[in-house]
Amino acid sequence: MQKPIRTRIAPSPTGDDLHIGNAYTALINYVFAKQHGGVFLVRIEDTDRTRLVEGSEERILASLAWLGITHDEGPYRQSERLDIYQNHAKELVAKGHAYWCSCTPDRLTQMRKNQEAHHLPPMYDGHCRELNLTRGSTIRLKVPREGVTQFHDVIRGDISFENKLIDDQVLLKSDGYPTYHLGVVVDDHLMEVSHIIRGEEWISSTPKHILLYQFFGWELPVFAHMPLLRNPDKSKLSKRKNPVWVSWFRKQGFVPDAIKNYLATMAWSTPDGRDIFSIEQMLKEFKLEDVQTTAPIFNIEKLRWINAKYLREQDVFEFYNGKYSRETIHQIWALVKDRMKVLTEFESLAGFFFERPAKKEVRKEVRDALASCEWNHSDMEKAIRSVAGTKAKEGEGLQFPVKNSTVITSCASPRYGKNHYGIDIRTAENAEVYASASGIVSKIIDTCTSGNEACGGGFGNYVYLKHKVEDKATNDELYTLYAHLNKVNVKAGEKVETDSIIGLSGNTGHSDGPHVHYEVHNAESIKGETSVDPLCFLKDSYKIIIEDNDSENCKNAGLICGIA
Question: How far is residue 125's CA from residue 225's CA, in Å, rounded to a whole number?
Answer without folding.
Answer: 30
